[in-house]
């Protein structure tokens, strides 16, 4: 748990140049990965209340990273769709997050890294 917290802290710090909170970055990733998502899907992925997802998407929209469009399959629903800026930022954030992870785990020798990976995969296997 301490290692996870330390990694999360470093990841949150890496978001500072973009003035994004971790939950906003996660929401942007969800929206970009599906190239548009209903607010209920964003809420489910982030494990938050739909009302909270609305607030997160509002913040992303204010920053010009997403826009709302009608869902073509259900005119009662709205999709949060990434803007070009949103896609670009999601890629930058993904690269920064990967670098934070590489730096964090760089203290391990290659054999230790492989052993840790094997153990963690065993723990999360269904």
From TrEMBL:
UniProt-recorded name of the protein: MarR family transcriptional regulator
Entries under Pfam families matching the protein: MarR
Gene source species: Occultella glacieicola
InterPro entries found in the cross-reference section: HTH_MarR-typ (IPR000835), MarR/SlyA-like (IPR039422), WH-like_DNA-bd_sf (IPR036388), WH_DNA-bd_sf (IPR036390)
Annotated ranges, domain HTH marR-type: 1-125
């Amino acid at each position: 748990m301490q290692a996870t917290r330390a990694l999360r802290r470093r990841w949150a710090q890496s978001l500072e140049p973009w003035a994004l909170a971790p939950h906003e970055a996660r929401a942007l990733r969800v929206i970009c990965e599906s190239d548009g998502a209903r607010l209920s899907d964003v809420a489910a992925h982030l494990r938050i209340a739909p009302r909270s997802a609305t607030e997160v998407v509002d913040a992303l929209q204010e920053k010009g990273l997403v826009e709302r469009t009608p869902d073509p399959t259900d005119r009662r629903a709205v999709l949060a769709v990434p803007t070009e800026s949103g896609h670009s930022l999601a890629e930058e954030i993904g690269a920064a997050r990967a670098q934070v992870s590489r730096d964090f785990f760089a203290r391990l020798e290659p054999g230790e890294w492989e052993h840790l990976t094997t153990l963690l995969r065993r723990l999360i296997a269904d």
